[in-house]
């Protein structure tokens, strides 16, 4: 009886070990490096002067947060965020990285640093953090925060 019990435990352990890779991170992360992380920022920045809020909003995950340097609190309602971008893109804005760093994980990239934003007659230097997540093979912004650089 003890041998049967030992055999059952051993077989159960092997079955569990064989099934574990289906649930665990297998190490198959999307290829990402600092250059590609900067390209994520550049892709977003190229959408800004297009005078199309939906084009900008397409770079954001459906559930994301956004805090502009001109706001006190982050926006989380997609309609409110779209309204912000609708007003902003009318100024034909341009965003340029001045200093940045990227923290890269398997499915997440956090790009942060200083960017220059030119919108109409106004030029602002802003500290920023943009978090991108790989969602079904598409890198989307899940968090975007800006504060005026001092």
Describe the structure.
The protein has helices at residues 2-23, 34-47, 53-57, 78-89; strands at residues 60-67, 94-104, 108-119, 122-135, 138-148. With 150 residues, the chain is of the alpha+beta class. 19% of the residues are buried. It has one domain (29-148): Nuclear Transport Factor 2, Chain: A, CATH 3.10.450. The protein is 35% helix and 37% strand.
Architecture blueprint of SSEs:
Layout lengths: L1 H22 L10 H14 L5 H5 L2 E8 L10 H12 L4 E11 L3 E12 L2 E14 L2 E11 L2
Parallel strand pairs: 1-5
Antiparallel strand pairs: 2-3, 3-4, 4-5
Strand order of the largest sheet: 1-5-4-3-2
- Estimated share of beta-strand residues: 35-45%
Q: What count of structural domains?
A: 1
How does the helix and strand content classify structurally? alpha+beta
Roughly what percent helix? 25-40%
Which structural traits does this protein have?
about 35% helix, globular, single chain, about 150 residues
What is the gist of this entry?
With 150 residues, the protein is of the alpha+beta class. The protein has helices at 2-23, 34-47, 53-57, 78-89; strands spanning 60-67, 94-104, 108-119, 122-135, 138-148.
